[in-house]
């Protein structure tokens, strides 16, 4: 009988496994957690981690890229809904609740940092059709632009300082309600009158 060879995972599978492990570690311990925890969680050697990701920033950037890809998938799934803009905001807030440390990393990065510029543009372009549809439906003020999303996402992230998932979810809902009211076309009229 011939011994069966164990098939090693391909690079893409190994990369996804490492990102899943890093995401779980960073959710629990923050983005400055020892990378040894990522290695342990993934069940790989250090060399495997460093072959895929030369440093912590490379891991964090890959996690942000993956989050952006998932946002794009969500936008595609919601594209026919008139309220897709707010559904995407709710999706983002859930991601922020799940991984506040990654959100902090995203928010604290400089807007001019070239490592993140392409991701910001991707997020803006992902939201743009949903924003235009919401504006056409009269759900969002006409002066709101896709570039304003960096500010809105930053506001969401800053609001989610609860100590438990339940508290962060409550704060997320409250922040989303405030953002929704502030984006309504009649909100502009109220601000002018005051």
TrEMBL record:
Gene3D superfamilies: Tetracycline Repressor, domain 2. Keywords: DNA-binding. Residues 12-71 form the HTH tetR-type domain. SUPFAM superfamilies: Homeodomain-like, Tetracyclin repressor-like, C-terminal domain. InterPro entries: Homeodomain-like_sf, HTH-type_TetR-like_transc_reg, HTH_TetR, Tet_transcr_reg_TetR-rel_C_sf, TetR_SbtR-like_C. It comes from the Bacteria. This is TetR/AcrR family transcriptional regulator. It comes from Comamonas endophytica.
């Amino acid at each position: 009988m011939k011994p069966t060879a164990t098939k090693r995972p391909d690079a893409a599978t190994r990369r996804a496994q490492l990102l899943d492990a890093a995401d779980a570690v960073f959710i629990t311990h923050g983005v400055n957690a020892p990378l040894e925890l990522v290695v342990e969680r993934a069940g790989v050697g250090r060399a495997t981690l460093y072959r895929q990701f030369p440093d912590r920033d490379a891991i964090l950037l890959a996690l942000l890229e993956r989050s952006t890809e998932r946002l794009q998938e969500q936008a595609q799934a919601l594209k026919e809904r008139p309220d897709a803009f707010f559904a995407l905001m709710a999706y983002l807030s859930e991601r922020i609740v799940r991984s506040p440390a990654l959100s902090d990393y995203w928010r604290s990065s400089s807007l001019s940092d070239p490592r993140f510029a392409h991701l910001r543009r991707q997020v803006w372009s992902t939201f743009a059709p949903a924003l235009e549809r919401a504006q056409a439906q009269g759900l969002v003020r006409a002066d709101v632009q896709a570039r304003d999303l960096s500010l809105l996402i930053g506001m969401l992230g800053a609001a989610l300082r609860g100590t438990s998932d339940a508290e962060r979810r409550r704060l997320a809902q409250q922040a989303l309600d405030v953002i929704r009211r502030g984006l309504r076309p009649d909100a502009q009229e109220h601000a002018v009158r005051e």
